[in-house]
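Late entry, written up from scratch paper. The run itself happened at the end of the previous shift, but nothing got recorded in the book at the time, so transcribing now.
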Amino acid sequence: MDNYKLVETFSEFKEFKNIDREAMMRIIEDVFRGMLNKKFDTDTTDFIDIIVNVDKGDFEIYHNREVVEDDELTDPLRQIKLSDAIKIEPDFEVGEEVNEELRIESFGRRDILALRQNLQTKVSEYEKENIFQKYKEKVGEIITAEVAHVWKREIVVIDDENIELILPKTEQIPTDKYSKGDTIRAIVKSVESVNGSPVVTLSRTSEIFLQRLLEAEVPEIYDGLITIKKIVREPGQRAKIAVESYDDRIDPVGACVGMKGTRIHGIVRELRNENIDVIPWTTNPILLITRALSPAKITNIVLSSDNTMANVYMENDQISLAIGKGGYNIKLAGKLTGYEIDVYRNSEADNAEEDVDLQEFSDEIDQWVIDSLIKMGCDTAKNVLSYTPEEVANRADLEIETVRDVFRILKAEFEQDAE
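Output as recorded:
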């Protein structure tokens, strides 16, 4: 097997592995250098040249030695006797350099097989590292790929370089339906090395996927004129996006939605008709909660002292709007605002203001009794009084006499307020 045929074999392997020609030539040089170092049991860099011709697709190996007098030879790897040099070319003189080409067949069958094995290993390592680095730089970016296989737990897709990527079931929108040959758009969620091989995971459920779609569709976001403050999603069901513009001349919500919804409609279709609410961001929590619960109309909002909970009051016919289909509206409003939101009818507002926390009665009721009442789900006086004494005794596992004493104390509090 001559040099040309060997490189042609390597080139065919290169095409199959999708490695560019220059990288392949560097790999060939590294493999040969390693073999030569092993064969001569030393670093051969200073006396052996490996010349790889990228254009022609071949290579040459030259052993460089200085011509010395026959009786002055001390280093056979770097020197050659004059008597041997003139056999190669009769005009050689002492002090000149002999560049002798080493033919591939001179290495022997075992060396050539080792070369091929090492090449396969190097090419495989290069390919894996190449894929890993390529997609490491693409994390968070949208890519388009073609469905290759549809499995129960995941979809395998291939990009334009035939690299396999994974879209797990957990990262698919519940209503996603794909067949072999279909085109998928998703973001690169992560790249991991598993047993030495890169595993690229895609996602269509990530908030970042929706953010990238918005950036692609809304030039004002891409240009930085509008900022996305927060995105929360229930994939395929509903999403809420809070946006802000530092330019008073720009309506951030209107820019995102587009004239007659033209900008947002394309995104909604991509997300399988996911209902997208775009609201203007504000640092005022009450106003933010009001906007987040849209389209429900709110009468009043009472925030807890630690700013973690919000009691929201509204007319009876607005409650279903606030909660939304499947509870997604109120759930996403809570995620967007950072508050745990409870909805109440307006008729409950006055009662809520008059109610008293059970801990306020710790000087009259034993703490273990209060703990038992809280455990059964009652943390205010009116919560307890909404039951009969017998029901409380049964639910809280308390003696009936103890419960009657509790009722007497709690009722006295409200009678006193009434006076």
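The CA atoms of residues 247 and 257 lie 17 Å apart.
(Scratch paper discarded after transcription.)
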